[in-house]
Design a protein that fits this description.
Elements: E1 2-5, E2 14-22, E3 25-35, E4 41-49, E5 52-61, E6 64-71, E7 74-83, E8 88-94, E9 97-105, E10 114-122, E11 125-134, E12 139-145, E13 148-157, E14 160-167, E15 170-179, E16 182-190, E17 193-199
Antiparallel strand pairs: 1-2, 2-3, 3-4, 4-5, 5-6, 6-7, 7-8, 8-9, 9-10, 10-11, 11-12, 12-13, 13-14, 14-15, 15-16, 16-17
Length: 202
């Protein structure tokens, strides 16, 4: 084990390392400090293999913190990423991107009032059907495509059920609201904007 400082023009943007070595490369347990853009630093503390993060570790970015598993220098396996706003992703990773099942937990002050989201990721984007649970107990289940809400949605608000369609994250067309099996309203949206509401008498 030991300490090493790197040249400022190091192609891997490494600044300094403290920890175990093998054959002239970090291997075992150690901490590496890196240069980031705008003179900000990035730090990895954890296990190493053949000069790369490999195994369990913690990567501190200027934009957040990742704790979990690495493979050949990239996030792979299960891990948790927390950004500066307090949003926390917990789930699978492959090749440095979210992959498979995961959840996003939102902070108490989330502007949309969300509590958490659960769904599937592929190559860092949400795909398939995902569910958002809000802090007031409401739920929204909707189809995703390329990371955006695109497709049929079912929303539960205070016991009422609303069904409709999203296009590129915006409500579109007719959304119908039910109380039990009885339809109580139809709302018409265009590009996310409510343009017409029709209610039905009890």
């Amino acid at each position: 084990s030991g300490t090493m400082k790197f040249a400022e023009d190091d192609p891997l943007r490494r600044k300094s390392y403290k920890g175990d070595w093998k054959d002239g490369k970090p291997d075992g347990i150690g901490t590496m400090w890196y240069y980031e853009d705008s003179n900000r630093e990035r730090k990895y503390a954890g296990t190493w293999k053949n000069g790369k993060p490999h195994g369990r570790g913690e990567m501190t970015y200027s934009t957040g913190l990742y704790t979990g598993w690495f493979k050949n220098g990239k996030k792979e396996g299960t891990g948790t990423l927390v950004d500066l706003r307090g949003n926390k992703y917990v789930g699978g990773w492959v090749d440095d991107k979210q992959q498979g099942e995961g959840r996003i937990f939102y902070p108490a002050g989330d502007l949309e009032g969300r509590s958490y989201f659960e769904g599937q990721w592929e190559n860092g984007r949400i795909i398939g059907t995902g569910k958002t649970v809000y802090q007031n107990g409401s739920e929204e289940t909707v189809a995703y495509q390329d990371g955006k809400r695109n497709g049929k949605a079912t929303c539960i608000y205070y016991g009422e059920v609303q069904k409709g369609l999203y296009v590129d994250d915006k409500k579109e067309g007719k959304w119908q609201t039910y109380s039990g099996k009885r339809r109580i309203a139809i709302q018409t949206y265009k590009n996310g904007e409510l343009i017409k509401t029709r209610t039905f008498n009890k």
